[in-house]
Amino acid sequence: MPKNTLKPNRSNFIFQRNVAIIGIVLFLAKLLAWKLTNSDAVFSDAMESIVNIIAAFLGLYALHLANKPKDEDHPYGHGKVEFITSGTEGALIIFAGVMIIVQAVDSIWNGNLLKELDDGIYIVAATAIINYVLGWISYKKGIQENSLVLQSSGKHLQTDTFTTIGVVVSLIIVHFTKINWLDSAIAMVFGVYIMFVGYKIIRKALSGIMDEADPEIIGKLAKFLNENRREAWVDLHNVRIQKHGSKLHLDGHLTLPYYFQLKIAHAEMEEMILSIVKNTDRNIEFNIHLDDCKPFCCEICIMKNCPARSQDFVRKIDWNAESITQPDKHRIN
Protein backbone atom coordinates (compact mmCIF):
# COMPACT_ATOMS: atom_id res chain seq x y z
CA MET A 1 0.00 0.00 0.00
CA PRO A 2 1.21 3.56 -0.61
CA LYS A 3 2.62 5.27 2.39
CA ASN A 4 4.08 8.54 3.47
CA THR A 5 7.79 8.14 2.74
CA LEU A 6 9.26 10.79 5.02
CA LYS A 7 12.91 9.97 5.71
CA PRO A 8 14.06 9.43 9.32
CA ASN A 9 15.46 12.63 10.73
CA ARG A 10 19.00 11.99 12.01
CA SER A 11 18.98 15.42 13.63
CA ASN A 12 16.82 13.89 16.40
CA PHE A 13 19.64 11.49 17.26
CA ILE A 14 22.27 14.24 17.19
CA PHE A 15 20.12 16.49 19.37
CA GLN A 16 19.51 13.72 21.91
CA ARG A 17 23.25 13.01 22.02
CA ASN A 18 23.90 16.66 22.90
CA VAL A 19 21.21 16.46 25.60
CA ALA A 20 23.07 13.51 27.15
CA ILE A 21 26.41 15.36 27.13
CA ILE A 22 24.92 18.51 28.66
CA GLY A 23 23.15 16.34 31.25
CA ILE A 24 26.48 14.97 32.45
CA VAL A 25 27.89 18.49 32.84
CA LEU A 26 24.83 19.68 34.78
CA PHE A 27 24.95 16.63 37.05
CA LEU A 28 28.57 17.35 37.95
CA ALA A 29 27.63 20.96 38.73
CA LYS A 30 24.78 19.88 41.02
CA LEU A 31 27.04 17.30 42.67
CA LEU A 32 29.49 20.09 43.45
CA ALA A 33 26.66 22.20 44.89
CA TRP A 34 25.54 19.29 47.09
CA LYS A 35 29.08 18.77 48.44
CA LEU A 36 29.34 22.49 49.19
CA THR A 37 25.96 22.80 50.91
CA ASN A 38 25.16 19.31 52.28
CA SER A 39 21.56 20.13 51.35
CA ASP A 40 18.89 17.43 50.89
CA ALA A 41 17.10 19.65 48.42
CA VAL A 42 20.23 19.91 46.30
CA PHE A 43 20.70 16.14 46.67
CA SER A 44 17.19 15.63 45.29
CA ASP A 45 18.06 17.77 42.29
CA ALA A 46 21.30 15.88 41.71
CA MET A 47 19.47 12.54 41.90
CA GLU A 48 17.06 13.63 39.20
CA SER A 49 20.01 14.68 37.06
CA ILE A 50 21.31 11.11 37.22
CA VAL A 51 17.97 10.00 35.83
CA ASN A 52 18.28 12.68 33.12
CA ILE A 53 21.58 11.18 32.01
CA ILE A 54 20.31 7.60 31.97
CA ALA A 55 17.12 8.68 30.19
CA ALA A 56 19.11 10.64 27.59
CA PHE A 57 21.21 7.59 26.70
CA LEU A 58 18.10 5.40 26.61
CA GLY A 59 16.61 7.97 24.26
CA LEU A 60 19.68 7.73 22.04
CA TYR A 61 19.27 3.98 21.82
CA ALA A 62 15.54 4.31 21.11
CA LEU A 63 16.08 6.83 18.31
CA HIS A 64 18.77 4.61 16.81
CA LEU A 65 16.40 1.61 16.70
CA ALA A 66 13.33 3.60 15.68
CA ASN A 67 15.12 4.89 12.57
CA LYS A 68 16.08 1.40 11.42
CA PRO A 69 14.05 0.18 8.42
CA LYS A 70 11.58 -2.69 8.63
CA ASP A 71 13.01 -6.19 8.42
CA GLU A 72 11.78 -9.78 8.44
CA ASP A 73 11.70 -9.91 12.23
CA HIS A 74 10.05 -6.49 12.60
CA PRO A 75 7.56 -6.07 9.71
CA TYR A 76 6.09 -2.94 11.32
CA GLY A 77 9.47 -1.37 12.03
CA HIS A 78 11.14 -0.63 15.36
CA GLY A 79 9.18 2.43 16.46
CA LYS A 80 7.57 0.73 19.49
CA VAL A 81 10.94 0.86 21.27
CA GLU A 82 10.27 4.56 21.95
CA PHE A 83 7.39 3.60 24.23
CA ILE A 84 9.55 1.08 26.10
CA THR A 85 12.39 3.52 26.74
CA SER A 86 9.93 6.25 27.67
CA GLY A 87 8.32 3.90 30.21
CA THR A 88 11.76 3.00 31.58
CA GLU A 89 12.48 6.70 32.00
CA GLY A 90 9.26 7.09 33.97
CA ALA A 91 10.23 4.19 36.24
CA LEU A 92 13.65 5.75 36.85
CA ILE A 93 12.01 9.06 37.75
CA ILE A 94 9.81 7.28 40.33
CA PHE A 95 12.89 5.54 41.76
CA ALA A 96 14.66 8.89 42.07
CA GLY A 97 11.64 10.28 43.93
CA VAL A 98 11.77 7.39 46.39
CA MET A 99 15.50 7.92 47.00
CA ILE A 100 14.93 11.63 47.63
CA ILE A 101 12.23 10.91 50.22
CA VAL A 102 14.42 8.32 51.97
CA GLN A 103 17.32 10.78 52.21
CA ALA A 104 15.05 13.56 53.47
CA VAL A 105 13.48 11.36 56.16
CA ASP A 106 16.95 10.27 57.32
CA SER A 107 18.07 13.93 57.61
CA ILE A 108 14.98 14.93 59.58
CA TRP A 109 15.48 11.99 61.93
CA ASN A 110 19.23 12.36 62.45
CA GLY A 111 19.69 16.06 61.77
CA ASN A 112 21.59 17.69 58.91
CA LEU A 113 24.21 20.48 59.06
CA LEU A 114 23.99 22.91 56.13
CA LYS A 115 26.85 25.10 54.92
CA GLU A 116 27.92 27.51 52.13
CA LEU A 117 24.36 27.95 50.91
CA ASP A 118 25.12 31.10 48.93
CA ASP A 119 27.54 29.30 46.57
CA GLY A 120 25.06 26.47 46.15
CA ILE A 121 22.30 28.92 45.19
CA TYR A 122 24.34 30.37 42.32
CA ILE A 123 25.37 26.99 40.93
CA VAL A 124 21.90 25.44 41.10
CA ALA A 125 20.24 28.55 39.62
CA ALA A 126 22.58 28.39 36.60
CA THR A 127 21.68 24.74 35.97
CA ALA A 128 17.97 25.63 36.14
CA ILE A 129 18.28 28.16 33.32
CA ILE A 130 20.22 25.76 31.10
CA ASN A 131 17.79 22.90 31.79
CA TYR A 132 14.71 24.96 30.96
CA VAL A 133 16.06 26.19 27.63
CA LEU A 134 17.20 22.69 26.68
CA GLY A 135 13.87 21.16 27.74
CA TRP A 136 11.84 23.73 25.80
CA ILE A 137 13.84 23.09 22.63
CA SER A 138 13.62 19.30 23.08
CA TYR A 139 9.84 19.32 23.58
CA LYS A 140 9.19 21.61 20.61
CA LYS A 141 11.41 19.47 18.41
CA GLY A 142 9.61 16.35 19.65
CA ILE A 143 6.25 17.85 18.67
CA GLN A 144 7.59 18.88 15.27
CA GLU A 145 9.14 15.46 14.58
CA ASN A 146 6.37 13.46 16.34
CA SER A 147 9.00 11.85 18.57
CA LEU A 148 7.82 10.60 21.96
CA VAL A 149 11.45 10.27 23.07
CA LEU A 150 12.20 13.97 22.53
CA GLN A 151 8.85 15.00 24.03
CA SER A 152 9.47 12.89 27.15
CA SER A 153 13.02 14.17 27.40
CA GLY A 154 11.84 17.78 27.07
CA LYS A 155 9.10 17.36 29.66
CA HIS A 156 11.54 15.71 32.02
CA LEU A 157 14.07 18.53 31.65
CA GLN A 158 11.36 21.14 32.21
CA THR A 159 10.17 19.26 35.29
CA ASP A 160 13.76 19.21 36.50
CA THR A 161 13.83 22.99 36.00
CA PHE A 162 10.79 23.55 38.19
CA THR A 163 12.19 21.36 40.95
CA THR A 164 15.53 23.16 40.65
CA ILE A 165 13.78 26.52 41.04
CA GLY A 166 12.11 25.10 44.14
CA VAL A 167 15.51 24.03 45.43
CA VAL A 168 16.88 27.56 44.92
CA VAL A 169 13.90 29.05 46.77
CA SER A 170 14.29 26.56 49.63
CA LEU A 171 18.01 27.35 49.93
CA ILE A 172 17.23 31.06 50.10
CA ILE A 173 14.59 30.49 52.79
CA VAL A 174 16.86 28.27 54.87
CA HIS A 175 19.77 30.67 54.38
CA PHE A 176 17.84 33.56 55.94
CA THR A 177 15.67 31.71 58.48
CA LYS A 178 18.28 29.17 59.65
CA ILE A 179 15.49 26.56 59.95
CA ASN A 180 17.41 23.57 58.62
CA TRP A 181 14.58 21.02 58.72
CA LEU A 182 12.77 23.02 56.02
CA ASP A 183 15.42 21.84 53.57
CA SER A 184 14.50 18.19 54.14
CA ALA A 185 10.76 18.90 54.15
CA ILE A 186 10.95 20.69 50.80
CA ALA A 187 13.03 17.81 49.40
CA MET A 188 10.24 15.39 50.37
CA VAL A 189 7.68 17.51 48.50
CA PHE A 190 9.89 17.43 45.41
CA GLY A 191 10.23 13.66 45.75
CA VAL A 192 6.45 13.17 45.70
CA TYR A 193 6.06 15.51 42.73
CA ILE A 194 8.80 13.73 40.77
CA MET A 195 7.10 10.38 41.39
CA PHE A 196 3.83 11.76 40.00
CA VAL A 197 5.60 12.96 36.84
CA GLY A 198 7.16 9.53 36.42
CA TYR A 199 3.74 7.90 36.72
CA LYS A 200 2.32 10.09 33.94
CA ILE A 201 5.22 9.23 31.61
CA ILE A 202 4.70 5.49 32.25
CA ARG A 203 0.97 5.86 31.64
CA LYS A 204 1.56 7.49 28.25
CA ALA A 205 4.13 4.84 27.27
CA LEU A 206 1.79 1.99 28.21
CA SER A 207 -0.99 3.48 26.09
CA GLY A 208 1.31 3.25 23.07
CA ILE A 209 2.50 -0.28 23.83
CA MET A 210 -1.09 -1.49 24.31
CA ASP A 211 -2.29 0.30 21.14
CA GLU A 212 -4.74 2.37 23.13
CA ALA A 213 -7.06 4.29 20.83
CA ASP A 214 -6.21 7.97 20.45
CA PRO A 215 -9.52 9.85 20.10
CA GLU A 216 -7.71 13.02 19.01
CA ILE A 217 -5.96 11.40 16.03
CA ILE A 218 -9.07 9.44 15.00
CA GLY A 219 -11.22 12.55 15.37
CA LYS A 220 -8.95 14.67 13.19
CA LEU A 221 -8.83 11.94 10.53
CA ALA A 222 -12.61 11.52 10.52
CA LYS A 223 -13.19 15.27 10.30
CA PHE A 224 -10.80 15.63 7.37
CA LEU A 225 -12.28 12.71 5.43
CA ASN A 226 -15.83 13.85 6.12
CA GLU A 227 -15.06 17.32 4.76
CA ASN A 228 -13.25 15.93 1.69
CA ARG A 229 -15.55 13.00 1.04
CA ARG A 230 -16.11 11.82 -2.54
CA GLU A 231 -19.47 10.54 -3.78
CA ALA A 232 -18.06 7.09 -4.51
CA TRP A 233 -16.92 6.62 -0.92
CA VAL A 234 -20.12 4.95 0.21
CA ASP A 235 -18.96 4.04 3.70
CA LEU A 236 -15.91 3.94 5.95
CA HIS A 237 -15.71 1.69 8.99
CA ASN A 238 -13.45 -0.47 11.18
CA VAL A 239 -10.71 2.18 11.17
CA ARG A 240 -7.81 1.43 13.51
CA ILE A 241 -4.60 3.37 14.08
CA GLN A 242 -1.47 1.92 15.68
CA LYS A 243 1.44 4.04 16.85
CA HIS A 244 4.97 2.88 16.17
CA GLY A 245 6.99 5.67 17.74
CA SER A 246 6.59 8.69 15.48
CA LYS A 247 5.06 6.52 12.72
CA LEU A 248 1.44 5.41 12.33
CA HIS A 249 -0.18 2.32 10.83
CA LEU A 250 -3.77 2.82 9.62
CA ASP A 251 -6.23 -0.01 8.88
CA GLY A 252 -9.73 0.57 7.56
CA HIS A 253 -12.57 -0.72 5.39
CA LEU A 254 -13.74 1.50 2.50
CA THR A 255 -17.05 0.62 0.85
CA LEU A 256 -17.36 1.40 -2.87
CA PRO A 257 -20.08 0.69 -5.47
CA TYR A 258 -20.08 -3.04 -6.22
CA TYR A 259 -20.01 -2.52 -9.99
CA PHE A 260 -16.71 -0.57 -10.00
CA GLN A 261 -13.95 -2.23 -12.01
CA LEU A 262 -10.85 -3.12 -10.04
CA LYS A 263 -8.83 -0.32 -11.63
CA ILE A 264 -11.43 2.30 -10.74
CA ALA A 265 -11.87 0.97 -7.20
CA HIS A 266 -8.12 1.01 -6.65
CA ALA A 267 -7.94 4.60 -7.93
CA GLU A 268 -10.58 5.68 -5.39
CA MET A 269 -8.62 4.05 -2.60
CA GLU A 270 -5.43 5.76 -3.80
CA GLU A 271 -7.24 9.10 -3.82
CA MET A 272 -8.20 8.68 -0.16
CA ILE A 273 -4.69 7.62 0.86
CA LEU A 274 -2.94 10.41 -1.05
CA SER A 275 -5.30 13.05 0.34
CA ILE A 276 -4.41 11.92 3.89
CA VAL A 277 -0.68 11.84 3.15
CA LYS A 278 -0.69 15.33 1.62
CA ASN A 279 -2.37 16.79 4.70
CA THR A 280 -0.18 15.33 7.46
CA ASP A 281 3.46 15.39 8.44
CA ARG A 282 3.24 11.92 10.00
CA ASN A 283 4.84 8.89 8.41
CA ILE A 284 1.84 6.61 7.79
CA GLU A 285 1.52 3.09 6.44
CA PHE A 286 -1.91 2.12 5.11
CA ASN A 287 -3.82 -1.14 4.87
CA ILE A 288 -7.19 -0.33 3.32
CA HIS A 289 -9.63 -3.17 2.67
CA LEU A 290 -12.15 -2.55 -0.12
CA ASP A 291 -15.76 -3.64 0.43
CA ASP A 292 -18.54 -3.79 -2.15
CA CYS A 293 -21.79 -2.04 -1.33
CA LYS A 294 -24.92 -3.98 -0.35
CA PRO A 295 -28.57 -3.06 -1.05
CA PHE A 296 -28.97 -1.56 2.45
CA CYS A 297 -26.06 0.80 1.67
CA CYS A 298 -28.32 2.67 -0.76
CA GLU A 299 -30.04 4.34 2.19
CA ILE A 300 -26.78 6.09 3.18
CA CYS A 301 -25.14 6.39 -0.27
CA ILE A 302 -24.71 10.02 -1.39
CA MET A 303 -24.17 9.21 -5.08
CA LYS A 304 -26.74 11.25 -7.01
CA ASN A 305 -26.74 9.27 -10.24
CA CYS A 306 -26.05 5.72 -9.17
CA PRO A 307 -27.17 3.34 -11.96
CA ALA A 308 -27.69 0.45 -9.55
CA ARG A 309 -29.63 2.13 -6.73
CA SER A 310 -32.23 -0.31 -5.37
CA GLN A 311 -33.45 1.68 -2.36
CA ASP A 312 -34.17 5.35 -1.72
CA PHE A 313 -31.59 7.53 -0.02
CA VAL A 314 -32.57 8.23 3.61
CA ARG A 315 -29.75 10.19 5.19
CA LYS A 316 -26.00 10.71 5.14
CA ILE A 317 -23.90 9.12 7.87
CA ASP A 318 -21.44 11.72 9.14
CA TRP A 319 -17.96 10.36 9.67
CA ASN A 320 -16.64 11.02 13.15
CA ALA A 321 -14.36 9.27 15.63
CA GLU A 322 -17.17 7.01 16.79
CA SER A 323 -18.70 6.14 13.42
CA ILE A 324 -15.55 5.28 11.43
CA THR A 325 -14.30 2.93 14.16
CA GLN A 326 -17.53 0.92 14.10
CA PRO A 327 -16.63 -2.66 13.09
CA ASP A 328 -19.47 -3.19 10.59
CA LYS A 329 -20.93 -1.35 7.60
CA HIS A 330 -23.28 1.44 8.56
CA ARG A 331 -26.99 1.04 7.98
CA ILE A 332 -30.15 2.89 8.95
CA ASN A 333 -31.87 -0.04 10.64
UniProtKB/TrEMBL annotation:
<dbReference type="GO" id="GO:0005886">
    <property type="term" value="C:plasma membrane"/>
</dbReference>
<keyword id="KW-0472">Membrane</keyword>
<dbReference type="InterPro" id="IPR027469">
    <property type="entry name" value="Cation_efflux_TMD_sf"/>
</dbReference>
<keyword id="KW-0813">Transport</keyword>
<feature type="transmembrane region" description="Helical">
    <location>
        <begin position="160"/>
        <end position="179"/>
    </location>
</feature>
<feature type="domain" description="Cation efflux protein transmembrane">
    <location>
        <begin position="21"/>
        <end position="210"/>
    </location>
</feature>
<dbReference type="GO" id="GO:0006882">
    <property type="term" value="P:intracellular zinc ion homeostasis"/>
</dbReference>
<dbReference type="GO" id="GO:0015093">
    <property type="term" value="F:ferrous iron transmembrane transporter activity"/>
</dbReference>
<protein>
    <submittedName>
        <fullName>Cation diffusion facilitator family transporter</fullName>
    </submittedName>
</protein>
<dbReference type="GO" id="GO:0015086">
    <property type="term" value="F:cadmium ion transmembrane transporter activity"/>
</dbReference>
<dbReference type="InterPro" id="IPR058533">
    <property type="entry name" value="Cation_efflux_TM"/>
</dbReference>
<comment type="similarity">
    <text>Belongs to the cation diffusion facilitator (CDF) transporter (TC 2.A.4) family.</text>
</comment>
<dbReference type="InterPro" id="IPR002524">
    <property type="entry name" value="Cation_efflux"/>
</dbReference>
<feature type="transmembrane region" description="Helical">
    <location>
        <begin position="87"/>
        <end position="109"/>
    </location>
</feature>
<dbReference type="InterPro" id="IPR036837">
    <property type="entry name" value="Cation_efflux_CTD_sf"/>
</dbReference>
<feature type="transmembrane region" description="Helical">
    <location>
        <begin position="49"/>
        <end position="66"/>
    </location>
</feature>
<keyword id="KW-0812">Transmembrane</keyword>
<feature type="transmembrane region" description="Helical">
    <location>
        <begin position="185"/>
        <end position="202"/>
    </location>
</feature>
<feature type="transmembrane region" description="Helical">
    <location>
        <begin position="121"/>
        <end position="139"/>
    </location>
</feature>
<dbReference type="InterPro" id="IPR050291">
    <property type="entry name" value="CDF_Transporter"/>
</dbReference>
<dbReference type="GO" id="GO:0015341">
    <property type="term" value="F:zinc efflux antiporter activity"/>
</dbReference>
<dbReference type="Pfam" id="PF01545">
    <property type="entry name" value="Cation_efflux"/>
</dbReference>
<keyword id="KW-1133">Transmembrane helix</keyword>
